[in-house]
Amino acid sequence: MKAICWHGTNDVRLESVPDPKIINPRDAIVKITTTAICGSDLHLYNGYIPTMEKGDILGHEFMGEVVELGSAVKNIKVGDRVVVPFPISCGNCFFCQRDLWSLCDNSNPNAWMAEKIMGHSPSGIFGYSHMLGGYAGGQAEYARVPFADVGLLKIPDGLTDEQVVFLTDIFPTGYMAAENCEIQPGDIVAIWGCGPVGQFAIRSAYMLGAERVIAIDRVPERLQMAKDGNAEILNFEELDVGEALKEMTGGRGPDAVMDAVGMEAHGMGLEGLYDKAKQAVRLETDRPHVLRQAIVACRKGGTVSIPGVYGGFVDKIPMGAAMNKGLTFKMGQTHVHRYLRSLLEHIQNGDIDPSFVITHRLPLEQAPHGYEIFKHKQDNCIKVVLKP
């Protein structure tokens, strides 16, 4: 089959690789009909996630048709159209039983790698480094799905791939990030980052009862999409975001703040140069400019929600502000399985059409071009969908 393989920083290639096979009775083989490039994939593309190996198949947002099943999978049939959550979860462990699916104890065969850095391992993830399982991803023609009896969600007739493919990651990620804000009626939520996750977070915050959402970015087309979602917008290149947020909230600050950017945030001035220099020589793995700004901006007693991916270590975090203001932090890889059915109902009811975020549709062989325009924000690119 054909697949998009990682070969190093800024180097992904379409290659012929062996077809996946059933290994475990709970496996399924899915013929992929739609997949996508995620902002998290850019961290791999930019070389910031350790334990990648040349030839690794990328991609963790994908869906398709079941073409083969292991003998233990009874709730899915060959021919079913399914979406595949990006975390791989067994359904039986301590964490899965507590609805903490991205913390599954049994799906990462390389847990020892993650434990060295994190103390404990999260779940395995499709197409996202050997530290997180080394699983082949979904930017391919076919994929093997472990624990298919737990992970696969059958899609009813009448919905297009583009309406449901983002149930695999960015729609639940934006929704969980908004849920983590613990929104109360009348709340003001400030969201840094108007990429795909930020866009879903904006709309999810309103679905959960926010009165106002303020979105922060610098890319015109992203800001416009946020404005189309009823957000008030701030361009961080044109003003002091902290001062603007004070003015917009009567001096109190937002009730909740969200870092939907993560480890590759663009800082301004000396702080930005400091982070880039330390990251370049690996004295700091991640650039936390947005996280610093969000902590300082949040009102006293507020909540900091972090859906943006962080991979290692950060520097100069204002913990004094966080502690003395009594802030609550909520974060983590998304527990996608928790949200699949409720968000599918929102799509079926017409509350949201997730396809609004798509700006580019490309065949699989043009994925390297898709990575480039997504990374460099060229051609008004916000979200790339690939068709194998």
UniProtKB/TrEMBL annotation:
Matches recorded under SMART domains: PKS_ER
Domain Enoyl reductase (ER): 8-386
Superkingdom, natural source: Bacteria
Cofactor: Zn(2+)
InterPro entries referenced in this protein's UniProt entry, alphabetically: ADH-like_C, ADH-like_N, ADH_Zn_CS, ER, GroES-like_sf, NAD(P)-bd_dom_sf
Keywords: Metal-binding, Oxidoreductase, Zinc
Protein's UniProt keywords contain Oxidoreductase: yes
Pfam families, per the entry: ADH_N (PF08240), ADH_zinc_N (PF00107)
UniProt keyword annotation of Transmembrane helix present: no
Gene Ontology MF term list: oxidoreductase activity; zinc ion binding
UniProt record similarity statement: Belongs to the zinc-containing alcohol dehydrogenase family.
PANTHER family noted in UniProt: DEHYDROGENASE, ZINC-CONTAINING, PUTATIVE (AFU_ORTHOLOGUE AFUA_2G02810)-RELATED, ZINC-TYPE ALCOHOL DEHYDROGENASE-LIKE
Protein name: Alcohol dehydrogenase GroES domain protein
Organism in which the protein naturally occurs: Anabaena cylindrica (strain ATCC 27899 / PCC 7122)
Organism classification: Bacteria, Bacillati, Cyanobacteriota, Cyanophyceae, Nostocales
